[in-house]
Design goal:
Low-confidence stretches: none
Distance between the termini: 15 Å
Structural class: alpha/beta
Shape: globular
Number of strands: 5
Order of helices and strands: EHEHEHEHEH
Mean pLDDT: 95
Amino acid sequence: MSDQTFHVLGIAGSLRSGSFNRSLLEAARELAPENLVSEVHDLKEIPLYDADLDTDERRPVAVVHFKEAIARADGLLIATPEYNHNIPGVLQNAIDWASRPARRSVLRGKPAGIMGAATSGIGTARAQQILKLVLEATLSPVMPHAGVVIGNATEKFDGEGNLVHEPTRRFLAAYLEELYRWIERFTTN
């Protein structure tokens, strides 16, 4: 690993304040290598996508800030829940806004890592596969990795949202080392 510092934008696909995926992003901040710095962006203020508002004159401020945050970041770390074997609508909506204009969006060429936590036994495996397809359509290169799939999240996070399951913590730390190297491949700083 080089000495270069990379900035990652963390995105939780859940709006719930006690979301396991928000907690997972916080654990990633704690466990990341020293030179992988992250900030978490909240999707609460992003309205439903409306092409009539997707102009420089009318674009909602929350969307402008989201796209600027993506543009500033060296990479993305998306933590998705799984709703009905799919990614949540709020996450798809945010990606829809960020993916415009098509083929020239802030997502184009932005390296990404995917992870997720859920109370079910298989975690977010299906949602992560769908998210890979969605990001592929935006030309965002997703790290080729099985991902961090945390099932039975209630057993791995404590009541305050801290990731306390030591094997999962070690796996997440190793994943973040790989994410650093993945971002490094796409960054020319």
